[in-house]
Design a protein that fits this description.
The chain is of the alpha+beta class. The protein is built from two helices and five strands, in the order βαββαββ. It has a five-stranded mixed β-sheet with strand order 4-1-3-2-5, with helices on one face. The radius of gyration is 12 Å and the shape is globular. The two termini are 22 Å apart.
């Protein structure tokens, strides 16, 4: 299992970003589970898992764009490989 953790900065809270991420992750074939949540500093944290890197790379590309109402200024991504999966579905936290 591979895990992507990303911190998205910019105008990303109060614009439907979390629900857009939830929908995007569910739409992408291969994203097995994870979550998205707002952070106190105004950024959004995403954690997603998959058996292959490709669906997570597709999700990461989408995170750089965001929904039309958002303005993404930076995305920090961290990868973990060969982990035991811990998420059964993708949810908004």
């Amino acid at each position: 299992m591979i895990r992507l953790q990303a911190k998205i900065q910019g105008n990303v809270q109060g614009v439907g970003f979390r629900y857009w991420v939830h929908h995007t992750a569910q739409r992408l074939t291969g994203v097995g589970g994870g979550y998205v949540k707002n952070l106190p500093d105004g950024s959004v944290h995403v954690e997603a898992e998959a058996l292959e890197r490709a669906p997570l790379q597709a999700l990461l590309a989408e995170l750089h764009r965001g929904p039309t109402q958002a303005q993404v200024t930076a995305v920090e991504a961290h990868w973990e490989e060969d982990i035991e999966g811990s998420h059964l579905s993708f949810r908004v936290a």
